Amino acid sequence: MRSQGVLQAEIEMVVPFFDVDSMEVVWHGHYVKYFEVARCALLDKLGHNYTQMLTAGYAWPIIDLQVRYIRGARFGQKIIVRADLIEWENRLKLHYLISDAETGERMTRGSSVQVAVDIASREMQLASPRVLVAAVEHALA
To answer: In this structure, what CATH number is given to the domain that contains residue 76?
Structure first.
């Protein structure tokens, strides 16, 4: 079992019809979308979301994404998607867990890594910009 991050955010959603395939389970690519929704909730909670990142002059592309499928989600199923902040000083690393809202059963887990890229120079930063680190420190205080 993975350890929890220093900050978490959860979203609850019902699997929509347009996310399932002919087998009536969520198509594998949509889990990444669910991770993104939880990641945005976490960044909002952190006080440094994508809009604020752009205003600060940085883009944060994903450079690594891992997904482990355990059990497929089905149309109409209520799920919880949790994002955990794991690393932030040199890169932004998050872990994700999708679970059944009623039973708590783990269904999918994953992780993503993002790095800061200076928008003006298009250069990857070797350390996270101070504005992100300060936002994390403030959220943890």
So the answer is: 3.10.129.10
CA dihedral 115, 117, 122, 127 (to 10 degrees): -90
Helix (H) / strand (E) element for 2: namely: none
The token pair at 126 is: 């070797």
Mean pLDDT score of the chain = 95
Crossing angle of the two packed helices 30-46 and 130-140, in degrees rounded to 10: 80
> In sequence order, what are the residues at sequence separation of 6 or more whose Cβ sits closer than 8 angstroms to the Cβ of residue 15?
26, 73, 74, 75, 76, 77, 78, 79
Split at pLDDT 50, 70, 90, the class of 4 is confident
- The whole-angstrom distance between residue 82's C-alpha and the CA centroid of its chain comes to 8
Instruction: With respect to residue 65, please indicate whether it lies within any of the assigned structural domains.
Output: yes
Residues 6 or more apart whose Cβ sits within 8 Å of residue 134: none
- Residue 33 phi, psi dihedral angles, 5° rounding: -65, -40
At position 15, the amino acid (one-letter code) is: V
SS3 13: strand
In this structure, are residues 65 and 112 in contact, taking their beta carbons and an 8 Å threshold? yes
